[in-house]
Amino acid sequence: MDKFGIDVEFKDGQRVTSDEAMDVVKMTLVGKVNEELVLAMNEHGNLAVGVNGTDAGTIIAKQRSPELGRVGTVTEVNPAYINALIASDYVPIIASVGKGDDGGSYNINADAAACAIASAIGAHKIIFLTDVDGFYEDFSDKSSLISQMTVNETREMLE
């Protein structure tokens, strides 16, 4: 964003994605990051295919909030394209950009997009890669790392 002179703004802890920022998001996620991930996976054989949620209408999204601009929430996943790639023994690397009802693109939280896609294709397993050690009860207290928790404990924490 700095490179393009676009200020980064947050509202209630969420990044605002203006129309100008959405162009940068697409260049970064769909272009650079997706390509780098595909290249890294393909070092182990030509397995990966770069995809984004707007391809074949895979991820349909709606605006989360007018205050957040082009930030979207997944409303539908059309799994046909992803299933066809998987059936052909390819691993789709999917950038979390969705197609909006307004014809534009939306920036989707990658974890939420992954969950929606996994559910739509009936995945048996989902793996998340992150740059943090795990889930903390209190992120500022590194000794509060939670190694496992039940569904009930998760619900209690959310409440």
Structure in words:
The protein is an alpha/beta fold and 159 residues long. It has helices at 19-42, 80-87, 110-121, 151-158; strands spanning 10-11, 14-15, 48-52, 59-63, 71-77, 91-95, 97-100, 105-108, 135-136, 145-146. Strands 4-5-8-7 form a four-stranded mixed β-barrel. It has a two-stranded antiparallel ribbon with strand order 1-2. It has a two-stranded parallel sheet with strand order 3-6. The longest helix has 24 residues, at 19-42. The chain starts with 9 loop residues before the first strand and ends with a helix.
Write a compact overview of the structure shown:
Helix content is 33%, strand content 24%. The chain has helices at 19-42, 80-87, 110-121, 151-158; strands spanning 10-11, 14-15, 48-52, 59-63, 71-77, 91-95, 97-100, 105-108, 135-136, 145-146.
Into which percentage range does the β-strand content fall?
15-25%
With strands numbered from the N-terminus, the spatial order across the biggest sheet is: 4-5-8-7
Tell me the Rg in angstroms: 17 Å
Outline the biggest β-sheet. Answer: 4 strands, mixed, barrel
Secondary structure category: alpha/beta
Poorly predicted runs are none
- Summed over residues and divided by their number, the pLDDT gives a mean of 93
Please bin the fraction of helical residues.
Answer: 25-40%
Distance between the termini: 35 Å
What is the N-to-C succession of helices and strands? EEHEEEHEEEHEEH
**How many beta-strand elements?**
10
Q: What is the number of helices?
A: 4
> What is the molecular shape?
globular
